[in-house]
Amino acid sequence: MVDSSWGEIYKELGAKPVINATGSVTMLGGSTPIPEVLEAMAQAGGAYIYLLDLQEKAGEAIAKMVDVPAAYLTSGAGSALTLATAAAMAGDDDERIQQLPNTAGMKNEILIQTRQRYWYDRCLELAGATLVDFGSEEETTAEDLEKAIGPNTVAVHYYAVEQEPDPHALSLEQTIEIAHAHGVLVTVDAAGQIYPLENFGKYVRMGADFQCIAAKYLGAPQSVGLALGSQEMIRKIGLQSFASYEGRRVRGIGRPQKVDRQEIIGAVAAVRAWMTMNHEERLIDAEQKCRTMMAPLMGIPGVKVEPIANIIGHQPYGVNIEVDPAVTGMTNQDVVDRLKNGDPPVWTRVREGEDRITLHAFGLYPGEDEIVGQRIAALFGK
User: Which residue blocks in 207-331 are alpha helix, DSSP H?
Assistant: First the structure.
C-alpha cells in the first residue's frame, strides 16, 4: 500500500500524484534529483553569483569531467538545441544575434535525414532555422548528403540513438566527414546517451561541433541540459543565452530559457556523481525492480511478458507486455487507461507505432515496483 502521506504536497492543491512506471518523461516531472544534487543546490541558494562567471566556471568543470573541449548549462536539452542553432546561424555577430529569429541575410538551412525526423527537431526551428530533409524513408547515402548541401546550409543535424542503431541511416562518421569538407557544422541530439560512460560526450570527441545531454537523466532537475562542443561553438552558444542578454545587454533569443544558479550547481554535482558512481549497483537495482514488476504477471493467459535487456543510455532494462484481446477482453490501451484511472494512478504507455505496453523502473520509488506488478495482475483477476 502507498503511505498516506505520499504525494500530500500535491493533494493539498487538489492535484493527483501518480506512480510513474513510464520512466524519465517530461510530462510526469522528468527526474528525481539525487541527494548530492539537492545538497549542492541548497548550498548554492546561500549566496548570489554573477551568472556569466558561474556559467563559464561550471562549463569548464563539466567539460573536464566528461573529456570534451567545452560545455555550457542550458534550460534542458531542448534549449541546447535551440541555442546551438542560433549560434550556427548568427555566430558572434551581435547584430545578427538580435535579428533572430529573422534570418534574412544568414545561412539558415539545417539538413536532417528523412529517416531521422523526430518529435524534438522542432527545437531546431525555434531560432528561425528551416529544416531540409535529405535521403529517403528507406535509406540515406553519402551522395544524398553531398547533393543536399547548398549555399544556405549552415549545419547538418544528427539524431543519435545508440540503443537502436539504424543500419540504413548515414553514419555520424560520414556525416562529419562530408559536412566539414563543405565547411558545414554538425550538431547531434544525444540527450540520453550517457552510459556506458565512454558515450558521454562521445560525438564531440568524434568531431561533431555540438551535442546535447539532458541532465535530468543524471539525477539533476529536469529543467537543466548540457551543451557540449568545441570551444568556438560553446562560446557562441553562450552569446545567445539569457545570461548574455542581461550581462552583455545583447537581446538574444535565449532570454526566456533561464537557468537559476541552484540548477547550474546541481547539474555540476549530478555530472560529478554520474562519472564516479557504482553503475553496476545502479543497473542491478533497475533490473531487480523490473523483475519485481514482472513476477505477478507470469503465467496469465493472454498476457505476454518479456524483459528488456538494454543497459545503454539513460533508462536501463524495462518490461514489455503484450495483451491478447481475444483472450483477456482488453487491449493494451485498455490496460493503460485502467491503470491511470486507479487509485493511486499508475502511468505507463503504448508508444506511438508500437503494439505493446512498456514499463520502466527509472521513476519508481522504493516499493512502487511491487505495486505496479500487483495492480496490473489484478486487472486480469490474479
Answer: 231-239, 242-247, 261-276, 279-294, 325-328
From 244, 276, 308, the end of a domain falls on 276
Q: Following DSSP, what letter does each residue of 160-211 receive, concatenated?
A: --TTS--TTSPPHHHHHHHHHHTT-EEEEE-TT---SGGGTTHHHHHT-SEE
Residue numbers of the chain with a pLDDT score lower than 50: none
Q: Cis (ω within 30 of 0) for the bond into 101?
A: yes
The SS3 assignment for 142 reads helix
Q: Same domain, yes or no, for 356 and 312?
A: yes
Split into its structural domains, the chain has a count of 2
Q: What is the pLDDT of residue 15?
A: 96
- Whose cell is 525555434? That residue is 126
Query: Using CA atoms, how far apart are residues 334 and 302, in angstroms rounded to an integer?
Result: 14
What is the CATH number for 284? 3.90.1150.180
The sheet carrying 109-113 orders its strands as 70-74, 225-229, 210-214, 185-189, 153-159, 109-113, 130-134
Stated pTM of the model: 0.95
Domain hosting residue 367, numbered range = 8-30+278-379
Cβ-contact 141, 148 below 8 angstroms:
no
